[in-house]
Structure prediction request, 246 residues.
Amino acid sequence: MKVKTILVSQPEPSSEKSPYNRLQNKHKLTIDFRPFIHVEGVNAKEVRQQKIDFKNYDNIILTSRNAVDHFFRLCKEMRYSVPNTTKYFCLSEAVAYYLQKYVVYRKRKIYVGKGKIEDLENVLNKFETETFLFPTSDTLKKDVPNFLDNIKLRWTRAILYRTVVSDLSDLRDVYYDILVFFSPSGIESLFKNFPDFKQNKTRISAYGNSTIKAAEDAGLTVQIKAPTPVSPSMTMAIEQYVEKIK
Prediction:
């Protein structure tokens, strides 16, 4: 069955050079974007209830831009001035560069990984006697905590924001040929918004093993999976599927 419409469960890309634009123009598709989940920050009272005091931590482990935003938001809310000596351990260059929104990059001690926490093992071990704060969402994969425990780091998790299901009620009577998901939370949002959802002829596209598993556990059939050796990105996987069923 030919594909004409696609709904991507993420915010619309800001760049006109987005691969979704190329995909849309090349194959004459209608591609809409709608976040199925969104982030809400906790307040200072909730941080204190976790018995977190920012001044007790010399080092901050940052794995996402959301973590950066909400750490500095709460510092401001709690009137805490982050010392210039604080060290930042960033999972990727994208997260590290994003720090420039809040600190003078060249004047701070910033350590950068290549996308995995294991990349930072050597430098983390250099400060094994110091304390680390790990700002996170209320949902957290086990890989980073397990790694930090394995290297016996003195770290504390701080839940500074929550992943919340978005209201999608206006989409109840809207049909798309393909629904695109990037996280198990997106699958959860689909069924919380539409408990009676039936897949029927809708194709499901899922990125990552955890998302694929969540979709299949929910009774969905996943026709488009990424990443794979031949389609490392979601847009490549969708394009291959679209071309296959022409």
In short: The chain has a mean pLDDT of 95.
